[in-house]
Amino acid sequence: MEDIEMYKKMLEIRKFEEKVYDLFTQNLIPGTMHLYMGEEAVAVGVCAALTPNDFITSTHRGHGHCIAKGASLKKMMAEIFGKKTGYCKGKGGSMHITDKNIGMLGANAVVGGAIPIAVGAGLSCKLKYPERVTVCFFGDGASNQGTFHEGINMASVWDLPVIFVCENNLYAMGTRQSLVMNIEDISERAAGYGIPGATVDGNDVMAVYQEAQRAVTRARNGDGPTLIECKTYRHKGHSRFDPAKYRPQEEVAEWMARDPIESFRYKLLDKGIPEEFLHKIESTVETEIEEAVEFAEESPLPEPEDALKDVWVVE
Amino acid sequence: MEDIEMYKKMLEIRKFEEKVYDLFTQNLIPGTMHLYMGEEAVAVGVCAALTPNDFITSTHRGHGHCIAKGASLKKMMAEIFGKKTGYCKGKGGSMHITDKNIGMLGANAVVGGAIPIAVGAGLSCKLKYPERVTVCFFGDGASNQGTFHEGINMASVWDLPVIFVCENNLYAMGTRQSLVMNIEDISERAAGYGIPGATVDGNDVMAVYQEAQRAVTRARNGDGPTLIECKTYRHKGHSRFDPAKYRPQEEVAEWMARDPIESFRYKLLDKGIPEEFLHKIESTVETEIEEAVEFAEESPLPEPEDALKDVWVVE
Amino acid sequence: MREITVVEALNEALREEMRRDENVVLLGEDIGKYWQGAFKVTKGLEEEFGPERVRDTPISENAIAGCAVGAAMTGLRPVAEIMFGDLVALAMDQICNQAAKLRYMSGGQVSVPMVLRTPFGAGGSYASHHSQSLEAWFVHVPGLKVVQPSNAYDAKGLLKASIRDDNPVVFCEHKFVYGLKGTVPEEDYVVPLGKAHVAREGEDITIIATSLMVDRALKAAAALEEEGISCEVVDPRTVRPLDEEELCASARKTGKVLIVHEACDTGGISGEITKTLVRRVFYYLDAIKILAGKDAPIPFAPVMEKWVAPDEERIKKAVKEIVL
Amino acid sequence: MREITVVEALNEALREEMRRDENVVLLGEDIGKYWQGAFKVTKGLEEEFGPERVRDTPISENAIAGCAVGAAMTGLRPVAEIMFGDLVALAMDQICNQAAKLRYMSGGQVSVPMVLRTPFGAGGSYASHHSQSLEAWFVHVPGLKVVQPSNAYDAKGLLKASIRDDNPVVFCEHKFVYGLKGTVPEEDYVVPLGKAHVAREGEDITIIATSLMVDRALKAAAALEEEGISCEVVDPRTVRPLDEEELCASARKTGKVLIVHEACDTGGISGEITKTLVRRVFYYLDAIKILAGKDAPIPFAPVMEKWVAPDEERIKKAVKEIVL
Ligand SMILES: Cc1ncc(C[n+]2csc(CCOP(=O)(O)OP(=O)(O)O)c2C)c(N)n1
Ligand SMILES: Cc1ncc(C[n+]2csc(CCOP(=O)(O)OP(=O)(O)O)c2C)c(N)n1
Ligand SMILES: [Mg+2]
Ligand SMILES: [Mg+2]
């Protein structure tokens, strides 16, 4: 992926979520909402190292992963609105967006729940699609789940092409990392499974991209899984109206000053990309988001009885 | 504990199990049976560092832990026979022997199942009995369970006085360690939880004892948990009539030559303990075992309807 | 008497029991001072009792339950919270194989006085991983008690009884029962486990409803009264042990029964209740009807989500189908 | 026709499906060449298909199930083994929250064609952690199919049908059904999921029995025949979907029903079956009786263990209580 494309993807995530948040506070969107804002460099950096055929699994905070992997903003927005035209026909909502066609195996609202699923997708890669890899995104909180341990160990002993990407945003809801684990770098856990681990600045999209590329190359060469920890930070609260008062103001300020999109924008300008060009991208993105909202708003609601469809595969 | 006592305890385990195995092959004992023979130095070395008030949790292979912690051979034997006078009134059998009075919180037939339970007992120690510690025994196979990860992490962040003792006998049923994990020393996993880990010769009772003492001291001082891996080997198959053909003959021979009891006996003799003294211990143990069998044989069976008792605490 | 919400009632129960007995400790994800529990049930408790007794845990559901088991076996009386009921799926081994069976397997040597609290139920567009009602899983496990409060008075009294009970109790709170207000006395009281509550007396039909469905059944009953149909509404309160006497007495009295729960129909506790009635009062019954959640995971979109659970209208309709 | 055991029949089903479709892969603890499966169901399969398709796993039940889910979503057709049915408690999240719901939550985009095989049942003095029958947990989860074969012919045909089914299937094998012999054709066949089997025709009473209880019910029926009582024995074979038509037809014909399962009474599938009969044929029924496992964990000692499960004598007694 070109760096300009990465910039555009990060911006899509940011603008999409700003919009969604706005609609949400206006009560136009049901349920709850976990925003990815601030962590865009992780999803985009990692997915930049992937092909459309590669698989990813995601979390309750999945908008960024979807967009980075190439999901349609329209169908995402429609899903978040609970419309029939959404990715999941309104059945999944924000926490379950899935796009099988682009290898996005689903956001997943059980913390750590998708880790073994990613291992299984990795097994399919190994046995059926030797050119593909699977990326498994999960949080710092998820890394204390049994599934983390069982899943990574299994991928390790089977040399599966799975890249485990821990998005360490320092908190699980209101729980700071240091309250629930006695280590600083979650990548240290890789040694317990005999696989490489790396910690990277998760707000630096190029750093993430390079680390991901190394891991993807290993995986494609049959050398098994890698654990990459990306240190990052969420700009918003955990969900809905969480004001995130449990975070010290200086900490928030420090991380806000390291916005992954802004800093990458400076780099692009430094590199000589004309500002007008970036402006053009920015307004393209705005338009795409508006179109997505329009699509969602104009789309029909599901019928109540649709609730009974898609429970089983019916021959 | 005196070294002579350790010798006697190891011998009790060995002779108890030889007897049980004998009875089992004569079809006098129902169910299945996981023998601890060959691993005696682990249970005895660890329990030698404990007081009667300390807690332990155990596994499906629990005879050694029970005896080392001071359980009654009679009540154990009666339980294995399925008699009313057994520790569990015939409800538990070999895999669930419990003696609350000596802090033996139960053998447990879910592999890894007792790990979080030990963490809970450690929490009680911390809050109620600051002088006590909890030891959690489990196998190499169990260390791939989610409970291992979740439990040790929790004990670590709460600085609980729990000593995690991994009995690495190189196999989980027919599965060699290298087939299911990509590391050599399971103690390496300790680093992922920010706690000390150590690997020790599990066939050397004094080495185990010393390592356990260090860990127990740390725990009693409020310095939190330790993971101790004891490398050992089972003399028999996994269970029942398993001939254990999956193990290379040379490997078996090598380990049989390192019998923890025999080698400790040599050490005692070297130290100047008179052989007659050891003979006396040996015959005392034989008598105790015979008495246990007699007790079990003469004990009554439970009534069928006893099956409905002890399900709930009834006021 | 003062009116408080179910959340407040539960909070009071925890607070008072913690004051009464220093062995009562709480553990769960984000239950401490930073978040106060996902639904604020543990509000202010870390502040009062400190971090040793109100313990924020890692996200490790099976270890949370298992730690409670081990603590309960050794002298504490832990109340563990699983943040959403759907996630009990991760803790089934510790709840059902360990907590429920350790007393039995040890021949009665140990007891496991723990409570596992968890919010069940749909209604907030939380979708399929945060909305189920899974009480039926626990009802099938000997050694457990299973509680489902439907109002503030019961919530407080039942939680206190559960904490004082020497058995492991799965305490199922409904997210949309949390906000219901009711009168709750200031003084200490318990609601004994295993006793149903006749929430409304009536003659024509017995509605056996659980959890949030009690509220809906009462509303339906009030509306039906105006149409001349007299409904008795019985709330089992504990679904294990089930108060067979009370349920059968009411069924026998009216001869007609409607069972209402939010959990999926197939395999839900309506089966067990039906079986109980058939066993004990079969020949007194004219009709039994079941109105339960649709046989689907809980969907996200409100228009579908609302449709899968029984509501007042459907309850009224079902009653009329039986009575008229 | 040749007679083979249920274990052999299951082994053949796996072997033939693996030959037929290279996407079929097996995973589980000790299923490979070193141990061949705790009950030898996977005997010789690693030898024939190699370690890539017959995978010994670490002891990680939730990851075994979850790996199967992910593999099934992406083109394989995994058959995962959980070594003992009690240990499904560790894998409930992946089976019930993931496998069962992923199709639904994705709006039908994905399917999860996996089979989770596991041996249930008491009888070997394996005690409370290795003896339960937990099919009722899965019956309550929309999105799953649940199968319980009772004989060799069905075992083979149902396992093949399960592997070819595009839905997640929980395949419950009984440890003491494993050794039962029956005639099994050499040629390929499937037994469709969702179709009950009238294992014996009769007039006076319908015995609905599952798994090992079918064998006991048939023996009881044969003995009762001599006493002049004619029993129809119906084996649902799949408890979800339940063949309501067949069950109701038989119940309607005889007017008397005895439901027999080994799982604990309270919360067991007898409730769901009772509910189905009450819903559909209430007015045709003279009597429904349930004979299920006692409400206790499974004890170790044979004298108690034998007593907790329904046996031939108890079935006969129950039939007589209804019929005479
Ligand atoms: C198994 C499980 N436990 C608890 C929850 C409730 N919950 C949702 S998100 C969350 C925090 C997750 O933290 P982390 O993994 O760090 O991801 P982040 O939200 O920071 O991206 C919790 C506890 C859940 N959904 N699943
Ligand atoms: C959770 C669980 N999975 C599988 C089993 C079946 N099983 C009993 S013992 C055992 C092997 C355990 O190996 P390890 O932990 O190394 O202990 P060891 O038997 O070597 O002492 C297995 C797989 C079980 N009892 N529990
Ligand atoms: Mg986080
Ligand atoms: Mg081992």
**Succession of helices and strands of chain C:** EHEHEHEHHEHEHEEEEHEEHEHEHH
CATH architecture grouping of chain A? 3-Layer(aba) Sandwich
Task: Give the strand order, joined by hyphens, for the main sheet of chain A.
Answer: 1-2-3-7-6
Overall CATH architecture of the largest domain in chain C: 3-Layer(aba) Sandwich
Average pLDDT score of chain C: 98
* Classification by helices and strands of chain C: alpha/beta
Point out poorly predicted stretches of chain C: none
Largest sheet features of chain A: 5 strands, parallel
Q: Structural class per helix/strand content of chain A?
A: alpha/beta
Distance between the termini of chain C: 39 Å
Written account of the structure:
The complex is a heterotetramer, with 2 copies of chain A (315 residues) and 2 copies of chain C (324 residues). By secondary structure, chain A is of the alpha/beta class. Chain A has 11 helices and 7 strands. In chain A, the strands form 2 sheets. Chain A has a 5-stranded parallel sheet, with helices on both faces. Chain A has a two-stranded antiparallel ribbon with strand order 4-5. In chain A, α1 packs antiparallel against α3 (63-69) and α2 (40-47) packs parallel to α8 (205-220). Chain A is globular, with a radius of gyration of 19 Å. The termini of chain A are far apart. Chain C is an alpha/beta fold and 324 residues long. Chain C has 2 domains: 3-183, 3-Layer(aba) Sandwich (Rossmann fold), CATH 3.40.50.970; 197-323, Rossmann fold (3-Layer(aba) Sandwich). Chain C is built from 12 helices and 14 strands. In chain C, strands 3-2-4-5-7-6-12 form a 7-stranded mixed sheet, sandwiched between helices. A 5-stranded mixed sheet of chain C has the order 9-11-10-13-14, with helices on both faces. In chain C, β10 (205-209), α8 (212-226) and β11 (231-235) form a beta-alpha-beta unit. In chain C, α3 runs parallel beside α4 (92-99). The longest helix of chain C is centred in the N-terminal third of the chain and has 15 residues, at 6-20. In chain C, 72% of the residues are buried. Chains C and D meet through α4, α6, α10 and β14 of C and α4, α6, α10 and β14 of D. One thiamine diphosphate sits between chains A (60-61, 109-111, 139-142, 167, 169, 171-173, 238) and C (29, 59, 61, 83, 87, 90).
